[in-house]
Design brief:
about 375 residues; eight-stranded parallel β-sheet; Ureohydrolase_dom_sf; His_deacetylse_dom_sf; single chain; Acetoin utilization protein AcuC; 8 strands
Length: about 375
């Protein structure tokens, strides 16, 4: 339990917006923030402003020619051929006005969180605007223009020389971050995600282990489609604890995609709010066990922006502040404000009711497959000779 924490936010986050029909909508951040405010968990004193990342900071990971291409695209000055080369102007990552500036605020928010934590001002900081884990060194991918996680970890390594454990619980594999540190023994990446057999980006197999000096510091749990709470939480918690014990990090960075829920329209996992009540609690425990509390949490995916993401992301803050998730009814004020705009009936409680849990005929088979996967991963958590 800690009161030494902060919530990073800027209204500029809402300008990261591709178009009205695109599944990635950063109004999610506003919804989560207001849910916390209306429940009395978040006050103005908790909020610190995000800043824009500088070009030099972006270039800790991204190539300068790519940064320039993003700037030109946002001003309408990038032709289609060059845009495709950089992953810009695709169906997933369309060009929008001032996209460089909007993206730089998301990165700057994560860098703000890093400095607050590692300088010792705060134990934990949450930046829900971050978590864009698919961006590559010179290419946009999967709704992600700049990869704030990769930039932030490069920043931690350069400025503070700390060993970083990156935990990614998005339903999509955290490919951009994994490849950024695939040869770095001072960054341990752990991603639990839906198997790539059915889902973008198709990577994240258990045998993706790193290369050169980084071999042995990349961990993946590509769980089966339709995995439910019990199996998800068992393999996640077991693996996270074993990997942390193996690596002994100085700081933990968690990417908190909220798309493993059964309501999510883009994935095939079948979790409920139970997993989003436990995921941040595990990170909280590990941060205090190994890192003197140093924990930077960021957002990520999540495409049921009304029923799932606000509650899932708000629970990260509740765990940071109170040592555990909120329970009971959601604030009536929040429901009344947003119900008219929401195309679905908003939930009334923090926890999901039994009606949210689908019947999965293959549950026993899925659980067994995930258990075998966990055993395959755990053999890699033994000391490297």
């Amino acid at each position: 339990m800690s009161n030494n924490l902060a919530f990073v936010f800027s209204n500029d986050y809402l300008s990261y917006h591709f178009h009205k029909d695109h599944p990635f909508n950063h109004k999610r951040v506003q919804l989560a923030k207001e849910l916390l405010e209306m429940s009395g968990a978040l006050t103005n004193q908790d909020i610190i402003p995000a800043r824009m990342a500088t070009d030099e900071e972006l270039a800790l990971f991204h190539d300068y020619d790519y940064i320039d291409a993003v700037k030109r695209a946002g001003r309408g000055g990038l032709n289609e051929k060059f845009g495709q080369e950089y992953g810009l102007g695709t169906e997933d990552t369309p060009i929008f006005k001032n996209m460089h500036e909007a993206s730089s605020f998301l990165v700057g928010g994560t860098l703000t969180a890093v400095d607050e934590v590692i300088s010792g001002k705060r134990d934990h900081v949450l930046n829900l605007g971050g978590g864009l884990h698919h961006g590559f060194q010179r290419k946009a991918s999967g709704f992600c223009i700049y990869n704030d996680s990769a930039v932030a970890i490069k920043y931690i390594r350069k400025k503070y020389n700390l060993r970083v454990m990156y935990i990614d619980t998005d339903a999509h594999h955290g490919d951009g971050v994994q490849w950024a540190f695939y040869d770095d023994p001072n960054v341990c990446t752990f991603s639990i995600h839906e198997t790539g057999r059915y889902l973008f980006p198709g990577t994240g197999n258990v045998n993706e282990r790193g290369i050169k000096e980084g071999h042995g510091y990349s961990f993946n749990l590509p769980i089966d489609a339709f995995t439910q709470d019990e199996s998800f939480l068992h393999v996640y918690e077991t693996a996270a604890k074993e990997i942390a014990a193996f690596f002994k990090p100085d700081v933990i960075v968690t990417q908190n995609g909220a798309d493993a829920h059964c309501f999510d329209p883009l994935t095939h996992l079948c979790g409920t709010m139970a997993i989003y009540e436990r995921i941040p609690s595990v990170a909280h425990e590990l941060a205090h066990q190994y890192c003197d509390g140093k924990w930077i949490a960021i957002g990520g995916g999540g495409y049921d922006m009304w029923r799932v993401v606000p509650r899932a992301w708000a629970q990260i803050w509740n765990v940071m502040k109170n040592g555990g998730p909120a329970r009971g009814a959601l604030p009536v004020q929040w429901i009344k404000k947003w119900q008219e705009e929401s195309p679905v009936e908003l939930p009334t409680n923090w926890h999901d009711g039994i009606e949210a849990i689908p019947e999965i005929p293959r549950k026993a088979e899925i659980t067994e497959k995930n258990e075998q996967l966990l055993k395959s991963l755990l053999k890699y958590t033994k000391p490297i000779p």
